[in-house]
Automatic annotation (TrEMBL):
This is 6-phosphogluconate dehydrogenase, decarboxylating. Pathway: Carbohydrate degradation; pentose phosphate pathway; D-ribulose 5-phosphate from D-glucose 6-phosphate (oxidative stage): step 3/3. Keywords: Gluconate utilization, NADP, Oxidoreductase, Pentose shunt. Its EC number is 1.1.1.44. NADP(+) binds at residues 12-17, 35-37, 77-79, 105. It comes from the Eukaryota. PANTHER family: 6-PHOSPHOGLUCONATE DEHYDROGENASE (PTHR11811). It comes from Patella caerulea (Rayed Mediterranean limpet). Residues 181-471 form the 6-phosphogluconate dehydrogenase C-terminal domain. One of its GO terms (molecular function) is phosphogluconate dehydrogenase (decarboxylating) activity.
């Protein structure tokens, strides 16, 4: 092949990388494939890529020579030092205006740093979230590119061609500058943690409170997937509950109840603390996984710590299943509202202009949290791009109101039966907190001023911080005022 015919290079031939390459090839793009272990390139070319237009490169130098200008190089390698190592090797081989794209699950702060460092070398950097797993990568992922805006016109055609489509619209658009793409992907993954935990709590209530079997629960999830909860995670939960092992028993009941995590949910929770946004549901979903990992301790504690005497729901089973559905729906609304709150605040602090309706569209197809529900979020932000909170949108206000009685019944019943529902419970607590004109934080401010002279504001004089000598023997000097 002659020099300079490749449209894009992709480094990293794990399954996601291979599938993205084949997806690009299907859409008429010539891809140059490279892997640090070169024999993996040879195996890929001899097997999965056989008969395609994909070109295998045996070195980075060869890979770069095979690319059209401006050169586009996409990395799908492990986040962290591996990305920096490849960037360091690529920089001497590239020219001004060439583009490096990181498609891994990198921390957004790393993407901000890389954008600045590479711009100083006249190179354009893009950090793109890629969601949808192996199947999505092969047939249409959700793509969330952000970084140096000058790069977008040169990668737009490739990215939007290979992405999932909903109503013929690509689930991919430019997110924003610097680390915006990876930040939005991080929030996506945090919401994914929340969605999974909420689904597990619905499963737990049906199994433990109602004594339902796997086929019964599979049927319920199948019914739910035909309505407001129509989504990828509800769909696969139905399929998982129906799946039998080779011995004819349901496989899900044999799996150890100890959940793993790769860190993106934790990053979302940390970001929420850094920016002071109460993303409580994602935080609880992360902590629920941490608690699940204490399996040995829980087995021991189960023999020693007693709960309520009644652990089964005695009322109308069918009505309670419907109440669980409504509680799940209401809690999901809160979860997404919190995720968009975090993106809104971060964008404000970092000076990013994010298109929230566009983000909802990107998530409607191809990704793990894809659902019909996201169409309503898209419409909410199209109607009002400055919407302060999803809970204040007319549609979502009405939906929460419809579900509220059932939601409260499910949470209170779970408490009485001793069934943990941390995500359902924190979603409801957030809703009640957010709709409260007054919270008991006035007492916290008084306590802080009492023991640390941290000052407080009076309702009658907003913006003016004062200190009181509560004991009569304290001083009148206050601590420096600060916001937590």
């Amino acid at each position: 092949m002659s020099e300079g015919k490749g449209d894009i290079a992709l480094i990293g031939l794990a399954v996601m990388g291979q599938n993205l390459i084949l997806n690009m090839n299907d859409h008429g793009f010539t891809v140059v494939a490279f892997n640090r272990t070169v024999d993996k390139v040879e195996r890929f070319m001899a097997n999965e890529a056989k008969g395609t237009k994909v070109i295998g490169a045996k070195s980075l130098e060869e890979m770069v020579k095979l690319l059209k200008k401006p050169r586009r190089v996409m990395l799908l390698v492990k986040a962290g030092s591996a990305v920096d190592d490849f960037i360091a090797k690529l920089v001497p081989l590239l020219e001004a205006g060439d583009i490096i794209i990181d498609g891994g699950n990198s921390e957004y702060q790393d993407t901000v740093r890389r954008c600045k460092e590479l711009l100083a070398k006249n190179l354009l950097f893009v950090g793109s979230g890629v969601s949808g797993g192996e199947d999505g990568a092969r047939y249409g992922p959700s793509l969330m590119p952000g970084g140096e805006p000058e790069a977008w016109p040169f990668i737009k055609d490739i990215f939007q061609s290979i992405s999932a489509k909903v109503d013929n619209e690509p689930c991919c658009d430019w997110v924003g500058p610097q680390g915006a793409g990876h930040f939005v992907k991080m929030v996506h993954n945090g919401i994914e943690y929340g969605d999974m935990q909420l689904t597990c709590e619905a499963y737990s209530l049906m199994k433990d409170a109602l004594g339902m079997t796997c086929p019964e629960m599979a049927e319920v999830f199948g019914d739910w997937n035909k309505g407001e909860l129509d989504s990828f995670l509800i769909e696969i939960t139905r399929d998982i509950l129906k799946f039998k092992d080779t011995d004819g028993k349901y496989l899900v009941e044999k799996i150890k109840d100890s959940a793993g995590q790769k860190g993106t949910g934790k990053w979302t929770a940390i970001a929420s603390l850094e920016y002071g946004v109460p993303v409580t549901l994602i935080g609880e979903a992360v902590f629920a996984r941490c608690l699940s990992s204490l399996k040995d301790e829980r087995v021991s504690a189960a023999k020693q710590l007693k709960g309520p005497s009644t652990t089964r729901y005695e009322g109308d089973k069918k009505a309670f299943v419907e109440a669980i559905r409504q509680a799940l729906y209401a809690s999901k609304i809160v979860s997404y509202a919190q995720g968009f709150m975090l993106m809104r605040e971060t964008a404000k602090v970092l000076g990013w202009k994010l298109n929230f309706g566009g983000i909802a569209l990107m998530w409607r197809g191809g990704c793990i949290i894809r659902s019909v529900f996201l169409g309503n979020i898209k419409h909410a932000y199209e109607k009002n791009p400055e919407l302060e909170n999803l809970l204040l949108d007319d549609f979502f206000k009405k939906e929460i109101q419809k579900c509220q009685e059932s939601w409260r019944k499910v949470v209170s019943t779970a408490v009485l039966l001793g069934i943990p529902t941390p995500a359902f419970s924190t979603a409801l607590a957030f809703y009640d907190g957010y709709r409260s004109e007054r919270l008991p934080a006035n007492l916290i401010q008084a306590q802080r001023d009492y023991f640390g002279a941290h000052t407080y504001e009076l309702l009658s004089a907003p913006g003016k911080f004062v200190h009181t000598n509560w004991t009569g023997h304290g001083g009148s000097v206050s601590s420096s005022t600060y916001q937590v």
